[in-house]
Amino acid sequence: MAAKVDGVTISEHVTGIETDNGQLRVVERYDIHNASSPARTQWSKQSFEVILPTDAVVGDASAQRPGASSLPTSVKLNPEATNGRYAFDFPIQPDDGGKGTLFQVQYDVPVRQREV
Known about the structure:
0% of the residues lie in helices and 47% in strands. The chain is built from no helices and 8 strands. A hairpin with a 5-residue loop joins strand 6 and strand 7.
């Protein structure tokens, strides 16, 4: 186990957006692969960092270990000193059968009206 491991990459980043009562509800999902050799887990208080809009109101966040039998776990995003930066304190384990670690965060941001 180490704070930083070679072979950790983002293989997929998917963003879904919908409107709700003057807010944008955003869900971001990240598929992280750990192809380290020898196989090692990356884990620290900032195992995986995301940057969100500075006016985002963070809702649910979850993480899921690699493997077909793994279920998502609710986690708390840790705000960092820089506005908009958050970190997951969750281990990024070596891939299991080609499956990586999944991170998901949901947040709301106000819809800005433009003057014409």
